[in-house]
Structures are given as structure tokens and as C-alpha cells.
Amino acid sequence: MTNILDTRNRPLRDLRISVTDRCNFRCSYCMPKEIFGVDYPFMSKDEILSFEEIVRLAKLFAKIGVEKIRLTGGEPLLRKDLPILINRLSKIEGIKYVTLTTNGVFLAKNAKALKEAGICRVNVSLDSLDDKVFMKINNMNTSVSTVLNGIIAAREAGLEVKVNMVVKKGLNDTEVLPMVHFFKEKNITLRFIEYMDVGCTNGWNFKDVISKKQVYDLFQEQYQLEPVEQNFIGEVAKRYRYKGTNTEVGFISSVTETFCGSCTRARLSTDGKLYTCLFASEGYDLRKMLRTGVTDQYISAIIQSLWEKRDDRYSEIRTEESHKNRKIEMSYIGG
Length: 335
Known about the structure:
about 15% strand, alpha/beta
């Protein structure tokens, strides 16, 4: 295995792969319904990477340092026969973990197959326990119970579960404590994510951000938290546990307390473009090389060169003006 570093001495350890640009939700902070309507031109089958192409690239990434793969979307469980891909990825030499981010709607149906295929953990997005609020967020009249059933099924299948909550002022900030109480009792890790300026369609405004400190202070009113040491370099969540328990809570604060300095993640879009930052505007087309007979050695050299030239630190230099610049949509690049 070759270990490579970018211009800020950050290693390449994590690869996030978007397996579909489609989703069954229309959350305002990711895929607003006004933009991603019934006539939106999603990618055709020929445009997206095949399982064989994804596995080929994953093997190359593993040889230059990647240890963890996370499958994202869109909603990854919309991709047909996904367990087949997971099984292949989990057997790649050097890959220690294969995880999945999902909105949980199809989790009850797929949890057992995901576990058997090699998924070790699922991150489930859930922004409220109140049906009225949750339906306003997902814009598809999906109830909270559907997601909770998926979480239950995942745990019964032996999967580790973490729940991610994006908090937006005036939308679901009153749901923080109900979420805390519920998932603490279930002994499930809950992670709060600051509302981010990903893409150009979600109407992001800093005034809508509920900061990590604000959420942490809410905790302190009812619970005592103690910090937990990082599991690995580049871990995005600042982790705590409820004092006297093993139940954790995390904060992902890419707006108010940035973590660009330890970012070890590369992202592969649904159609095979490589992005070295979540907030990037352009990616490098690896699909074209895959489909024109280029050798693995050449592709690997390109990936290595792109990473070694990487100097991304968007969140550290974000300004009132820079957040308006064109950026790729989260539904295309994955979270």
C-alpha cells in the first residue's frame, strides 16, 4: 500500500461513493422540490458507474491508502442489487470498513441483506420525531415511524446505527431535546450536523445555522457530557458520552468549528468524477478513462497526483460572499 499526502499533509483514508443521484425525499437542505421536480433530468443507466467500474476504482484507491468506504447517494438503497456491490467492496484487500448513509425508508427491507453483504454500520438521517415537522422536511409525506422501523430492523440485523440530525433554525430546532431523550433511551448515537452551504439550491443563509455550541448548551441543561477521544485521524464528529453511560452523542460543526485541517476524504460521484472536497465546484472525470482502455497504473497515478496537489480548505475560508460561489450539489456528490 502506498501512503500519499496532500499539500497540507493530510492522508487519503476515506472514499465516499455516490451510487445514485436519485432520492425518494425532497429535503429543502439537499434536494428542494422546486428544483428536483418530476421533470428533473436524473442520470441514465449508461451515465452512472457500473458495479464493475466502482470496484475497479475502489481497488486502486485501496492501494494508495483508502481504508474506509461509505456508500451514499441520493438514497443509495434505490440502487438495484446494492448488496452485490457491497459484497465485492468488502472483500477488497486493505478495506477495513464499508458503511452506508441512508434516509432509512428502505432499511427495514434491506437491513439483513446489508449486514450479510458486509456493511458494518448505517448512518440514518432523521431530523425530527414529530410527523408534521418531518413531513415538512422530507416533502414526501413519509412518517417518522417508517424510519424508526428501519432503525429497529438494522439493529436487529446486527448493524451499528448512528442517527444524523441536520438542525436548521425555525424549522426543527425545537426537536433537538425530544431527539436527545429518545435516542439516549435507545442507546443509539445521535449526531447533530450544522446546516451547511452545500450546493447552490438550498437557499443557505448563516442566520439559519444553529451552532454546535447552542446545541451543546441545550444538552447541559439536562445532561452532563464528557468528551471522548477520537477513534482515528480525520474523524469529523466531536464525540461525547452521557456521563455514567456508554451512549455517545456527536457534533459535526463544519460551519462554526471547521475541521478541514484533518480531512482525509475523497468523493466519487455517481457518474465517476473525483472530488477532493464536499464544497468543490469541479471534479476529475475518471469514468472517461475507465471506458477508453486506460490502464490501472495510469488511473492510479492520476488519482495520486490529484491528491498530492490538493489544498482544499473551504470551510476555513468561508465568507458571506464565497458561499454564493457555484458548488456541486450534495445529492450528486454524496454527503
